[in-house]
Design brief:
This protein is α/β, with parallel strands linked by helices. The chain has a single domain, classed as P-loop containing nucleotide triphosphate hydrolases (Rossmann fold). It has 9 helices and 5 strands. The chain starts with a strand and ends with a helix. The chain binds adenosine-5'-diphosphate, shikimate-3-phosphate and magnesium ion (MG). Its cofactor is Mg(2+).
Amino acid sequence: MSIILIGFMGAGKSTIAKLFSKNYIDLDEYISKKFEMEVSEYINKKGISSFRKIEEESLKSLVGKHEIISTGGGIIESLQNQKFLLNENNVVYLKADFNCLLQRLEKDKINRRPIFENLVRKELEELYYKRSIIYEILADEIIDTTDKKVEEVLAILKEFYLA
Ligand SMILES: Nc1ncnc2c1ncn2[C@@H]1O[C@H](COP(=O)(O)OP(=O)(O)O)[C@@H](O)[C@H]1O
Ligand SMILES: O=C(O)C1=C[C@@H](OP(=O)(O)O)[C@@H](O)[C@H](O)C1
Ligand SMILES: [Mg+2]
């Protein structure tokens, strides 16, 4: 079994997966290593549709092989992935208020996120609400990370799966 973390950009999926288990895989990191370029570079060079296809293939091939998988926020843009995730039993939605996510994303100088950088606030907010409904539907567990420290979120996840 694999725990699969879903949620909007900035929810803390990559951070939490890494801390939860040595046997983690981050889909963006996996894709970046495979194609020897940052995900942002891949999206800018090859386009978002190509990236979504790679995400589909990667998700399918990695589930079951790692204790925890952090996905990219757009994983649920693919209908195929939605169906796949609906059939999985350990999908955890890391959620947060829009303003909280925005603050985290603005502070994060390490990861480049074309979807975040190329949208104006209103467009990003619309995307957030559109995606939030889908994350909720697909989730087996939901952790609200708003105003929670990384350590607190990690402790809740451990309570679910390691207690
Ligand atoms: N619970 C949290 N509280 C405050 N900052 C956080 C929290 N979780 C993650 N962050 C920060 O937000 C940014 C995005 O985290 P990241 O793990 O890359 O999110 P995601 O993979 O969901 O996009 C990073 O700078 C990270 O340190
Ligand atoms: O929401 C999205 O469409 C994306 C989210 C990013 O991952 P994080 O959610 O880990 O930031 C990354 O996969 C890519 O930039 C596209
Ligand atoms: Mg991430």
